[in-house]
Amino acid sequence: MRLVLIGPPGAGKGTQAAILRKDLGIPHISTGDLFREHVSRRTALGQDAQRYLDTGELVPDDITDEMIRRRLAEPDTQGGFLLDGYPRTVRQAEELGSMLSDSEGGIDAVLEFTAPEDVVVPRLLSRGRADDTEQVIRHRQQVYRSQTAPLLAHYAARLLTFHAVGSAEQIGERVLTALKERGLVTRRDESA
Ligand code: B4P
User: Fold this and answer.
1) Radius of gyration of the chain (CA)
2) Which of 20, 58, 72 to mutate to test the pocket of ligand 1 (most atoms within 8 A of CB)?
3) I need a surface site. Which of 32, 41, 95, 97 has the fewest CB within 10 A?
4) Which residues line ligand 1 (CB under 6 A)?
5) CA angle 77, 64, 53 (to 5 degrees)
6) What is the pTM of this model?
7) pLDDT at 190 over 80
8) What digits encode the pLDDT tens for the residues 71-107?
9) Which atom of ligand 1 is nearest to the CA of 15?
10) Do the beta carbons of residue 150 and residue 144 sit within 8 Å?
11) Neighbouring-strand partners of residue 2
12) Dihedral of alpha carbons 85, 184, 179, 19, sign
């Protein structure tokens, strides 16, 4: 199964992807994690990406697309994947469709996580990652509204929306139930 997770920073995409990865036995691919790994290994890509991460701007599409293209070429993605943080612009979504050779996008479902800004800001401040300063967090929320939220219309036919307030386990259960109700997960898909 191929899933895309969308939501404002702090809505819990990474958290839900970690839960679903275990339940579904498919790899979790997070562009944020991939960028941070490049930064810590001091690769050329990491050096390019660093300033965007620091300010909360999106890394340019061509850099991000190429990183994902390489990751999706790895054999563990054959049985599906959870894309967390990609696509983040309509242009990235179009590029993903062409990578997967499918004009419909090649995606089974898009999981949208919603949470109000006054809930996500304290969550991120308490996480305390290098880009989790209040100013950068607020800017990332703004970038989400202007550049990523338009993707929801692009994926309207496959969109499942979850209110992401409550315990991470409860939200994970709601997601799994919705995927089962739509026949996207059968007992055989569950790895547990
Ligand atoms: P990301 O790493 O994707 O960061 P994020 O949006 O803040 O989400 P994250 O997944 O980490 O947080 P989550 O909501 O799970 O991106 C970082 C940067 O990388 C971007 O600003 C950009 O520069 C760049 N980037 C990434 N993808 C890109 C792309 N496609 N194109 C261009 N640039 C890109 O969780 C946050 C916190 O909430 C955690 O501490 C968690 O424990 C907590 N939490 C989660 N669920 C909870 C719950 N139910 N209750 C209480 N707390 C909860």
Assistant:
1) 16
2) 58
3) 41
4) 9-15, 31-32, 35, 52-53, 56-59, 64, 85-86, 88, 92, 123-124, 127, 140, 164, 167-168, 171
5) 120
6) 0.93
7) no
8) 999 999 999 999 999 999 999 999 999 999 765 568 9
9) 15
10) no
11) 81
12) negative
- Which residues make Cβ contacts (< 8 Å) with residue 84, sequence separation at least 6? 5, 13, 14, 17, 28, 29, 30, 31, 32, 33
Tokens 């991000």 locate to 64
In the chain, what are the domains? 2-29+80-190 (3.40.50.300)
Exposed e or buried b for every residue in 113-151, given b needs 16+ CB within 10 A?
Answer: bebeeeebbebbeeeeeebbeeebbebbbebbeebbeeb
Contact 53, 39 (CB under 8 A): yes
